[in-house]
């Protein structure tokens, strides 16, 4: 479905509930709130599923209060966003309870599980698509909406650093800058600000950093017990994921989160190793430069398996 037809379809429906993916990230949250604003701008009733307890730690400056659906709200139209498939939905029951459904997304694997789908895999973030949708619907983007879209796009592009950052990304960012004003405070809060506890965790985790294959592969890990004892959740360690890859000379960086009987590995590569293929060998998946896989075997054995698979790709 093209964007014009998609926007026309939206006009035929009402009473929307916007649902992002599970463990919503900056793009999922920012796009949800922005989409809600856009729908309201064209006269629709719209709310976002209650993500207030699942907000990313670096988006503390965003208040979802006016967006969360009240308890007696009876939505008729579900609007999935930034969610590649139904199983990854923040609230699948809510999605299925609605008679009609829309989906807007940028994941290349999205097969279009809603009644009406608009998927643009070239978009760096769902936020980029919401921006285009607003233009297509002739909905004015206000200051708050611009802020949400900035958070969405900055989040999925690693602050405009990843290879998915296109000319269009910068054009949209330029338009948002015009509406919102300077973004340095948001950028600081999202990317450059940490609590003392987070830095202590980083210090602890860095001690586990090890190198293999002439320094081309690095592995770092954190134990669930450590996180629990220090008041962290499993996801709280995610901000450390890219550290192994950031070391000069490293092609593949591995970050392992060890939880008693299960180990979750995040794989990141810099130039040529397709880590989604490595992850797929063991039942995982993801993108070329960022993928994930889980093992239910002892840590050392799991690392050995991954190292072997990666070493075959590094010559
Ligand atoms: Mn996204």
Provide keyphrases for this structure.
11 strands, DHHA1_dom, 2 domains, 11 helices, Bifunctional oligoribonuclease/PAP phosphatase NrnA, 37% helix, 5-stranded parallel beta sheet, inorganic pyrophosphatase (n-terminal core), DHH_sf, 315 residues, alpha/beta, nucleic acid binding, 18% strand, 6-stranded mixed beta sheet, Diaminopimelate Epimerase, Chain A, domain 1, binds manganese (II) ion, DDH_dom
**Ligand kinds:** manganese (II) ion
Cα shape:
globular
Give helix % range.
Answer: 25-40%
Q: What is the count of distinct domains?
A: 2
The number of distinct β-strands equals 11
Q: What is the name of the CATH topology of the largest domain?
A: inorganic pyrophosphatase (n-terminal core)
Average pLDDT reading? 95
Q: What assembly state would you assign to the polypeptide chains in this entry?
A: single chain
Give, in spatial order, the strands making up the sheet with the most strands: 6-7-8-9-11-10
Would you identify the CATH H-level superfamily of the largest domain?
A: inorganic pyrophosphatase (n-terminal core)
Give the biggest beta sheet.
6 strands, mixed
Q: What would you report as the Rg, rounded to the nearest angstrom?
A: 20 Å
GO molecular function: nucleic acid binding
Domain DDH: 16-153
InterPro entries: DDH_dom, DHH_sf, DHHA1_dom, Oligoribo/pAp-PDE_c-di-AMP_PDE
Protein name: Bifunctional oligoribonuclease/PAP phosphatase NrnA
